[in-house]
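Bug #2210: token dump truncated for histidine kinase?
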Amino acid sequence: MKAAIPTLRLLRTTPFRLALLYLGLFIISVGVILGVVYRSTAGFLEEEIGATIALEVAGLQDQYRSAGLRGLVDSVRERSGYSHTNSIYLLTTPGGVILAGNLSGWPDATPEPGGWTHFKISDYGGVNNRPSTAMAVSFVLPGQFRLLVGRDMSELDQLRGRMVVSLRWVFLVTVVLGLGGGLLLARGAMHRIEAINRTTHRIMAGDLSGRVPRGGGGDEIDRLAGNLNAMLDQIERLMTGMRQVTESVAHDLRTPLSRLRARVELALIRETDDPEVYRAVLQDTILEADRLLATFTALLSIAEAESGANRKALEPVRLADVVRLAADLYEPVAEEKGLTLVTDIRAEPTVRGNEQLLAQAVSNLLDNAIKYTPEGGRIALLLEGAGPGQSARVTVADNGPGIPPDMREKVLERFVRLDAARASPGNGLGLSLVEAVARLHDASLRLEDNEPGLKVGIVFPPDAG
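Reproduced locally. Full output below:
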């Protein structure tokens, strides 16, 4: 019973039903081809026999015209007396008296519209003692004498029988092979689909590391497996990021919240009537609350970008306008810190994206560059355009301390800050947001060495417009 269950399941599968459908179409095609072969072969042989009979008829007619009835009788007797002949002759008077031939009587069969007559000679006695049939043509001579000329069709009937048997075997073998091949194909497809089902069950059970195996043939199931694995990678990355965010929020926000509570508690403990003291405490509390709100806003922006919720709202965006706006906002900030901000817009590319998120990503890059570049430094904001087959790229380069190559992947994670940056205000979410926005737009974020400093580029795909 256990062995029958997979077979029953296989018979109910879509691959097996498709295999049956293709098998049915294949059987019909083979049947039509075999029918055409049979009709062509048998018809050709019958046409050859008919042509031979027609030639004999013409010869006997010439004999009658040249030698008269006596010559025709002699010719029919001579031809009828040949041994092992399969020709049939019969010459009778108007009253039905046999003058010559090898038939015992005129056949009791109705001629067809073309003059041809098919009749049975005997139940036995044909080739290999099979029923003997004949095909003949008859006509009336001057004087109402009747002449019948034909051929014994036993050999052709035997050939037809052999062809029918052979074609039946070919048809049967085709059905068996087609059905067996359909079962094998369906079973192979089911094995691969079952592998996908097992992987999904593992994932539903909590094992996010499971991946769908690929056959390596590059067919539709392999492409489906690749897409599923890419989706699972994204899900695992999001789940890991969520877990990291939860841990990081619990760890990194505990300190400012504790500090906020302590500051308010100290203000309540102090016994003073000086309103300036309370004002200062409230101002510090507001600043601390603003930093917490900024952190939560950044987390929400990252989550929104990573979820792809804004993908439906993507529309054509002129990157040059985004870059100019960011440069106008941060140029006074750079001047106030004693930095030089140089904007170089070399083209006017248009990409399909979310203008607000793109502006926030460029602003984050400029904010980081201004924050970590020492006084007197230089920051370059570069926009390179996209021609045919080229990529649009927004680059922010500075001559600050830079990021070591072994830390460039690490700094893209949430709440990760280098030791040198811990003294500066921030929450370690700037580059994480930029990376999430880049992924939303199918772009890549590249961190490179500016010698000295850091060069960060957002590279859009060539068809992003």
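Output looks complete on our side. The chain has nine helices and twelve strands. Marking as cannot-reproduce; reopen if the truncation happens again.
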